[in-house]
Design a protein that fits this description.
9 helices, two-stranded antiparallel sheet, globular
Length: 257
């Protein structure tokens, strides 16, 4: 099954990093967050990706064009420029890198990918969110309900710690619990190809008219994920995700290596 990853936004809320690179190329543990997202999907057998490029998309192209050589040992014959690659079994992924425009909105990017998506069920997510999510279970949930669209609903980490009081006595102190204020759109969608009919053009944001119309027509359902989820919106988020990776047990790392 094909997985679309939206990787073309400007990432203005994390300008410290995105002034020089697209947001999906911001690194966690020495690898772009885009790579981490792809590893999640590939762990569950989804290894064909369509990357919707936009802002600084050439950097994402350059990364994958040199990926095979970056991940393997190489012997170089300097006399003729030939290289001998000593394979270490890099990821066996099929990656389509498609320019969808600098200013195109999220819905418009998906619409532009119609020829690449084809007429089959497909996955879609944002290029800046990580989760401990069972992709196979998500897909089963989608098929069981028979709707056009499934969104993964998540509870974001609370921004501040929680204190429970009885009169003046603290009866519970919990520092920044995973369950925040309520359910939000966490990405990790499953769509039928008919969803593209709900998108009119480049200026359409997926999160507005298309999802609102799907909701009105009872064609959008929510897969509730109570596991770890975190988007990378700020430099603070980058540091937090890096700290989790360096701990040796990052909660989104569902693969073994």
């Amino acid at each position: 099954m094909k997985t679309v990853i939206l990787a073309g936004g400007l990432g203005t809320r994390i300008a410290e990093e995105t002034s020089v690179k697209p947001k999906p190329m911001v690194e966690i543990g020495g690898r772009p967050i885009l790579w981490h997202i792809m590893k999640i999907y590939a762990t569950y057998g989804c290894s064909e990706f369509i990357i919707a490029l936009g802002y600084k998309g050439e950097m994402i192209k350059d990364y994958f064009l040199s990926y095979y050589y970056r991940r393997n040992n190489i012997s170089m014959y300097l006399g003729n420029g030939k290289a001998e690659v000593h394979s270490q079994s890099p990821e066996d992924w099929y990656v389509h890198l498609i320019d969808t425009g600098i200013n195109t909105q999220t819905g418009g990017r998906i619409k532009r990918l119609a020829p690449w998506i084809g007429k089959e069920t497909f996955m879609l997510t944002y290029g800046d969110g990580l989760a401990n999510i069972d992709i196979e279970d998500l897909l089963r949930f989608h098929k069981r309900h028979g709707k056009l669209a499934t969104v993964t609903a998540v509870r974001p980490p609370a921004r501040f710690g929680g204190i429970s009081l009885v009169d003046d006595k603290v009866i519970e102190f919990k520092e920044k619990p995973q369950i925040g204020e309520g359910w939000i759109n966490g990405g990790f969608f499953v769509f039928e190809p008919e969803v593209l009919d709900f998108i009119d053009g480049d200026s359409i944001e997926l999160e507005k008219e298309p999802l609102e119309r799907l909701t009105a027509e009872s064609q959008l359902i929510a897969y509730q994920c109570n596991q770890f989820w975190q988007c990378m919106d700020t430099l603070r988020d980058v540091r937090m995700l890096e700290s989790l990776w360096q701990s040796g047990n990052p909660p989104w790392k569902v693969w073994n290596e």
